Amino acid sequence: MRENGAMPASDAIAQPEQPWNRQRLRSTNERLLLDRLRTGGAASRAQLARETGLSKPTVSSALAALEQAGLVREAGTHAPERGRVAVLYAPDPAAGYALGIDIGRGWLRVAVADLDGGVVARADVRNRARSSGAMADLVVSTARQVVANSGLGAHEVAHAVVGTPGVYDEERRRVRYAMHLPGWGRAGLFDRMREELGIPLEVHNDANLAALGEYTYGVGAGSRLFTYILIGTGLGMGVVSEGRLFTGARGGAGEIGFLPWPGRQKPETLEDAVSGVAVVEAARQFGMTGQLTAKAVFDAAREGDSAAVRAVRLEGERIAYTVAAAAAVLDPDLVVLGGGVGHSIDLLLRPVRETLRTLTPLRPRIVPSRLGEDAVLLGAVATALGTARDVVFERRSAS
């Protein structure tokens, strides 16, 4: 008899495996192998079977499907001491492309990269736009030109990422806090760029992308928690923890430039005290004259100009306060200094470290950016690649 209407196990009718279950399993296996090839380099079928735990027939079937979809390709052979020559497989970098865009006050940088991260075309142009509309036009025209120069069509670019000062408000479709780009907070600018480019596009803070770029390609690799302090026209900070970007509840984490700073005549912010403009103002106060830029002040300091040396020393002391604030809140194991001012880190490291010792017992390692002015652009490329790889896999697997 059956109890409570239950059917005995012996009477249970075997349900055929659903097609969608088989399809999902095949897709999972293919993605597992593709990810292994991307992170571990070219490998043979036997090696992939050993490392993933999949059977050799499953590996062979999945590789055949990936090769047919144009996602992997033969990448040579391996001749062991014993046994047959093995074919090596690797991801096909030309299966899709990603677009990175860095919008700065002085320069616009755009690059197209293949799925291996290799840059296939790039342009760096002066940002002479005097309105937000003109800047959006410049971004679109430059990006189109870079894509054309790479020999690609827009449909081959799976994803794009833009780095910009400020914080993008997804709900209101606008950038907030981009103080140095007049009109850049206008709603709909990035929607317009998406439409005119014909490429899916997401927007991130420039300091955050610089941090990701430095983590992926620069000195931040392997750090448990590090901060990238971007010092240029403005002041920003990106935080990467265990390889993941920390942006806060509304994207404002790292906007360290808004911290208050006691000005002589009126309250200021830390950005007022630390940015490149502050270096020029300090140099003027100490007696320098003429057409000054932050670069000119640092160059003069290298030549021993006393006013420039004092200005650079003051800048180093103020950067130390910035590092002390970051250390107290985040306890990073590494602080990377980058941006325009970061180019003169050779003059700044000593006053930063000396002042930091007087401010706090917390002593993170402080190093210059390895990527320099390319940090934001490469961070945009790396972020775009993460999505592009997923999009390309889904597209090609489905077709």
Distance between the termini: 51 Å
Number of helices: 12
Order of helices and strands: HEHHEEEEEHEEEHEHEEEEEHHHHEHEH
Rg, please? 26 Å
Helix content: 40-55%
Care to give the gist of this entry?
The chain is an alpha/beta fold and 399 residues long.
Task: Give a written overview of the molecule.
With 399 residues, the chain is of the alpha/beta class. It contains 12 helices and 17 strands. The strands form 5 sheets. Strands 6-5-4-7-10 form a 5-stranded mixed sheet. The chain has a 5-stranded mixed sheet with strand order 13-12-11-16-17, sandwiched between helices. It has a 3-stranded antiparallel sheet with strand order 1-3-2. β2 (72-78) and β3 form a beta hairpin. The longest helix has 25 residues, at 306-330. The protein is globular, with a radius of gyration of 26 Å. The two termini are 51 Å apart. Residues 1-15 have low confidence and may be disordered.
